Amino acid sequence: TESRRATVDVFLKASGYLDCAIRQVLPQIPSELRRQLPVDLAEGNLKALSMQALGQGVDMQLGLAIDSPKATLAVKRRLACEMVKYWHQVQESIPELPVSEGWGKKHLLFVKWKYVEAKSAAYYFHGLILDEGNSEKSHGMAIAALEASEEFLKESKRASAAFHATPPTSR
Q1: How far apart are CA 139 and CA 78, in angstroms?
Q2: I need a surface site. Which of 36, 42, 63, 168 has the fewest CB within 10 A?
Q3: 2-165 domain in CATH 1.10.10.10?
Q4: Contact predicate 55/31, CB 8 Å
């Protein structure tokens, strides 16, 4: 638990450093030099990495909440929804990443995997909350949310398999 909390802190710091680079450092660099920077240092990619750090930090927090008997379903759903937001922002912020080389394509697959996984978690916890309701309408909506979660989970597993199979291969 302590190492997970430390990991969350590292992700938050990383995001803060990247955000500082975007807001404070890049504007100080002349536009001619900015165009000569490696694509990894482009503003969109730095923003994507900053959002990714936040998404991975919230992922760790959700893991801590799942393991904690004190964490409510509402807290778990809120964290899952935050993950969806961050991973969606990552997808929108990677305009300049070259996908022709292996790491760029692999990174895009990782982002897709985590985004769909976050959607699955958000729908799952939302379905559990709806299922606590006493009406038939809330029960029907809970079933729909849990079915959507199952579909996103299947898609997440496919995205994970694609990520791990893409060179450079990983486990």
Answers
A1: 20
A2: 168
A3: no
A4: no
Residues 130, 143: contact at Cβ < 8 Å? no
Q: Residue 61 phi/psi, 5° resolution?
A: -60, -40
Tell me the pLDDT tens digit for each residue of 105-114.
888 899 999 9
The sign of the dihedral angle between the CA atoms of 33, 51, 153, 137 is: negative
CA distances from 165 to 9, 42, 54, 105, 152 (A): 31, 28, 26, 11, 20
pLDDT by residue (tens digit) across 30-89? 999 988 988 778 888 889 899 999 999 999 999 999 999 999 999 999 999 999 999 999
Distances (CA, A) of 19 to 16, 49, 85: 5, 9, 17
Amino acid at position 116, single letter: V
Provide the CA 88 distance to its chain's centre, in angstroms.
Answer: 7
Burial of 12 per CB tally in 10 Å (0-12, 13-18, 19+): middle
What phi and psi values does residue 17 have, to the nearest 5 degrees? -65, -45
